[in-house]
Specification:
This protein has about 150 residues and is mostly helical. It has eight helices and no strands.
Length: about 150
């Protein structure tokens, strides 16, 4: 897990939050991040992929989330919604990243940007999404742990 990738996720949360709240054009939001040097120390390619990928795959992401959340996805706190969308995007489309890394990053993002205790909510939802979309990976990890 690289610091640059973690920083890319932090920037993506902020950018997606802005997009969710304002509906502004993705290019304008990204341009703001570049002009203000907010991507300094962040893996730019990863930021681009996540920041562009979440809106592109929004229907698929929200469909997966809606199975496990206790309210409509759009009624979730905007910060938590951005974190959940990034985590779900990664679980679905970044299969080379271990599910535990994705969940842990989501928890840390919630601790950094979310309300007190929101990391527990993020953990619970992302874990349920992972159980569904990464079942083979989880089973293999469990089998390996049992062998040890």
């Amino acid at each position: 897990m690289s610091i640059a990738r973690t920083n890319a996720r932090k920037c993506a949360v902020q950018a997606l939050y802005q997009w969710q709240m304002t509906g502004a054009n993705l290019n304008d939001i990204e341009q703001h991040f570049l002009e203000e040097q907010l991507l300094k120390g962040a893996q730019r390619t990863y930021f681009d992929e996540v920041f562009r990928g979440v809106p592109k795959q929004l229907d698929v992401i929200d469909q997966h989330l809606s199975e496990f959340v206790d309210r409509p996805v759009n009624a979730i706190d905007p910060v938590e919604r951005a974190v959940l969308r990034i985590g779900t995007y990664e679980l679905l489309f970044r299969l080379e990243t271990p599910y535990r890394v994705i969940i842990n990053e989501g928890i840390n993002l919630a601790k950094c940007f979310g309300a007190e205790g929101s990391h527990r909510y993020i953990n619970g939802i992302l874990d349920k999404v992972a159980q569904k979309v990464r079942a083979v990976e989880i089973a293999a990890k469990t089998a390996k742990d049992q062998e040890s």
